[in-house]
User: Fold these one by one.
Assistant:
Number 1:
Amino acid sequence: MATIKDVARLAGVSVATVSRVYNDSHLVREDTRERVRQVAQQLGYSPHGAARSLITSRTHTIGVLLPDLYGEFFSEVIRGIDLRSQQEGFHVLVSSARNDGRSLESALRSMRGRVDGLIVMSPDMDAGAGQRGLPARFPVVLLNSPPSDSGYDSLGVANFDGAYAMIRHLAGLGHRRIAIIRGAEQNFDAAERLRGYRAAVAELGLEADAALELPGDFSEAAGHAAALRLLALPRRPSAVFASNDGMAIGALSAVREAGLRVPEDLAVTGFDDIPMARYLDPALTSVHVDITALGASATDWLLATLQGQEIPGARREMLPTTLIVRRSCGAGAPGPA
Amino acid sequence: MATIKDVARLAGVSVATVSRVYNDSHLVREDTRERVRQVAQQLGYSPHGAARSLITSRTHTIGVLLPDLYGEFFSEVIRGIDLRSQQEGFHVLVSSARNDGRSLESALRSMRGRVDGLIVMSPDMDAGAGQRGLPARFPVVLLNSPPSDSGYDSLGVANFDGAYAMIRHLAGLGHRRIAIIRGAEQNFDAAERLRGYRAAVAELGLEADAALELPGDFSEAAGHAAALRLLALPRRPSAVFASNDGMAIGALSAVREAGLRVPEDLAVTGFDDIPMARYLDPALTSVHVDITALGASATDWLLATLQGQEIPGARREMLPTTLIVRRSCGAGAPGPA
DNA sequence: GAGGGGCATGTAATCGTTTACATTTTCGCC
DNA sequence: GGCGAAAATGTAAACGATTACATGCCCCTC
């Protein structure tokens, strides 16, 4: 691989000049610049990233730490991050790590000197676990994390509001006995959705019953299992709110297998509004979350911090959600929409 | 941030010794090693990646270049790559780039000195476009790419076989007039699936009819539109093979809206077997592809090349697929499986 | 024609490591 | 106790860039 020296020699200039050409300093005469570019082209030269970042102490890379890389959600987040990063000429270094302190910490260490800042998704309820080992005063944006006094920027989804709105909608359709399929234990998003559910149940005077709160883990299988349990209940609910669309899909198939109809026998709704929700049968009523925007915003925040435009740690924001009404809840949505 | 010098000074040793501790050379006395570790811990020191890779000329990072980061497919590939990379202590730098030579080339340039090797997904039929600008003799594994004499390792999916098997299965169920919803223009996977379809149609003596080959682009919407066109045909086919599951889902919803039944009025099948396929109504018959394995294998190949265990460029392999029969094709699958 | 102000370019220190080579320490053995 | 080999440590030169500072040059002005 050609280095800056090779280019300099062949172009008959000093390395400083070559460097200037690549950092487009205006201090290079046009013909010199042209000659250098030519030689570089011919040699297939391009600046060595590591060398560059060693001296400038900027890597032009942001690190993304996710608990897992599975599923629609993560691919959307990454997409949002990549989109914005690329616009600003930044690279994206991804890594998944179970958020126990240890593997997270080692992931962090090994990113030292490779990234300018981090986007960390640590949805674990135990705030400390996800954040210990983060170097102090390092630019970090937390995603979907419980509130903490960590002093990091934090961005998430208005889970509480979204869940509340969904339950209110169902109540508006006349449902009084509404079940919830909960998300993963210890998951902050799941906890917030549950809180929204409970608040709505209480405030709207719906039937409160511990038997209506079923455990789940965000998987289709869990939704399937939970729905079966619901259907077996002595007093069956008329509607069920699954904490994400994956579980709602599992629930739909369970109801179908039981020979019952959605929404007539049981209304089913979800959360996330994944692209496929509208194509299900019946089309799934869900809470829309713009995940790509979440990733993009996180990136914006991080880049702003990197460029010193923002004081880090000052912000905590929840992206608003929108209720998408389709047929699965029994509302009069005119066909799949 | 503490550097190796700080650690050395505070531990009363030379930088070389500290370095040795971190590269676990056996040439350090146990008590010295312990002292160094202690000081490092206390200072929060960890080696600076850029500096390290500058001198060793190894980054312990593999670059992943994808045409887009959208959807299930990519998230699975990345997951496979990340899984294996992490096991081997490698990082993953992802980037999406439309595979026109230009943006690809710039993506490549900016990765120079940041990655040890590349996994490039360039499904574009124009082989050159996706591969121009790749530095010669750089470790590269191509994903889902058309054959070329580029001299790079190439890994893909047995699209032809998968499609052929699907059509044969449908023919076995008695279908004689089978349509296909094609994938994106210029996409190699799509082309192979089409080729498999045509080969099966010809060899099995099914009805060949240009009107049965509908354009598509892998999106749900395209599947929806194509199905509507099929239903409007004077002589309607009895089955349709969508080139991916997303389009199959769109087709399912279109048939439903038309007030017809799957599979009785029209059998529908897909390709990819995304996790949700089994939860659709009716459960979708599809060609299973282990995408995570694809990513993992690509990573294995690349790492093997990096460690000099393999001569690069020698291999081209197509991962086998398996036919998953469910209800949407009309076969007697006992309920959703 | 001397002086001076820009502009274009060159020189060399620097970033934080690794590692070949040089040097010191340790230790077994006679 | 002295010798020498082996083990432990230190010294300093890389790696490939950026950039403060020095220098040279051209041209203008008086």
Number 2:
Amino acid sequence: MTLYGGQGDPARTMALLWRAHSPATEDAPRQRTGRAAPGPKQGLTVDAIIEAAIAVADADGMDRLSMRAVGDRLGTSAMALYTYVPSKRELVDLMYDHAHAGWPQTYPTGDAPRSAVLAWADDLWDRYLRHPWLLQVSYARPVLGPHEQSVLESLLGILHGADLPPQSLRPGVSALFHLVRGAAQTAAEGRAAAAATGTSDQQWWTERSALLARLAPDFASRFPHSTALGGASSDMDYDPVRQARRALDGGLRLLLDGLLPPDD
Amino acid sequence: MTLYGGQGDPARTMALLWRAHSPATEDAPRQRTGRAAPGPKQGLTVDAIIEAAIAVADADGMDRLSMRAVGDRLGTSAMALYTYVPSKRELVDLMYDHAHAGWPQTYPTGDAPRSAVLAWADDLWDRYLRHPWLLQVSYARPVLGPHEQSVLESLLGILHGADLPPQSLRPGVSALFHLVRGAAQTAAEGRAAAAATGTSDQQWWTERSALLARLAPDFASRFPHSTALGGASSDMDYDPVRQARRALDGGLRLLLDGLLPPDD
DNA sequence: GACAACTCCGTACGCCGTAAGCTAATGTCT
DNA sequence: AGACATTAGCTTACGGCGTACGGAGTTGTC
């Protein structure tokens, strides 16, 4: 199920999200009271925690991400993290933003906004497949961090050059995000399913068909169009990542036909 | 985080999914051994469990859906459910399919496939907003039940009439699903956030802006396009559901411009 | 030297999914 | 009628989770 973000204390979360990037708030829980700073030195940093958490999620998946697991990786306990991070939810928010770091500031457009959009989508697709747990964090979250913001900003930069009808901008942006995200999710989950069950994609698919044929022998007559669509041609590609990627490319083509003038 | 479905024993899951709809397997765990049926009468049914679980998810959200909660609602314990359903994962799969029940078999197309697609998308949007937890179940799941299958089948029926280039069919279908699902997710989560915090959408938005202005005073110069996009006009609509719906309508328009000939 | 502020973190609580196994009910077979 | 295999229902319990709470130890200021 989707993990909803942005639910803790918004001020605290946003301070953490924008902390290093803002000239105003230098850093740290330490600074919260305006006064000095007694007490032991801090042994961890928020960034170290974020990176450890991302490492856990990348390696073992979001299901296995727990405060205890992050603590283990850092050689401490789960509770030690709570000095730096108010809760797991906030940590996920921070992970989410951090995983979008290093995004290109701009994409070369020239006279070809279409290929720039495709490059942007390709980068986002890569990012999602590299950190599939990103797709399990709600993207309707309203607490945006600086790195996520860059992803949006770079797309807007591309579209700014193309002369869109102004009322197409917002829907176009939403649609592009939804398409990439949806396709990447399909790909990531197909890949994960194959890895989890250990059966090849083709093998798995034929087993499923046999089962369906037995349980629902009238399938073909009840769902003729689905049957036609699923009809396996001999050169069928069972790899879920390639399938999803092809669907994404096609979907982007259709959408951009409606959105942009053709590159030339 | 997204709950991955379709991971239990596929044969058992599919038998449950297609059970009532198939002439072959009459029903029930009872029947699994070919032999007769000693032991106490069964006091529950799979359908009752599914419906109770959906009621819990509708009322309290997916986070609060637990086997114990479903058991409580049925006046029994959590463990009593395991006679009927192999695990929570399978139960979620069954819930997912069941929540798509009653889908229109066909949409009137006439010469207007475009409006038929829009009606289909509208129905799906409604369904998602009525059962927002559906959006937290992965839709890349390959174990399809009969009701989900009808959703796809009806769309294919519409598109069959329009003469699409054949290579546009799959990407078009994927894109339509992704658009509706993405928009509904944005809407549902915005709605949930407003309900959870108790602040009005407008109030919440202005607080967020003030916070951002303080933490990242250089926001406008670093993200000029985002700033321009977010620029609040006086007649701005803060309601997240309406916003997402408008984005969906616009996105569908763009996509269908690329996909279909205009209705007339 | 006193004290306040702070970090660190062990313990514990109430959740969760579900494995294991007992009890009692029911059918078939002798 | 009685024996017995099979099954549903359910209790108990285990190992996980997020995190509240509070004690212990460390560091700065007065």
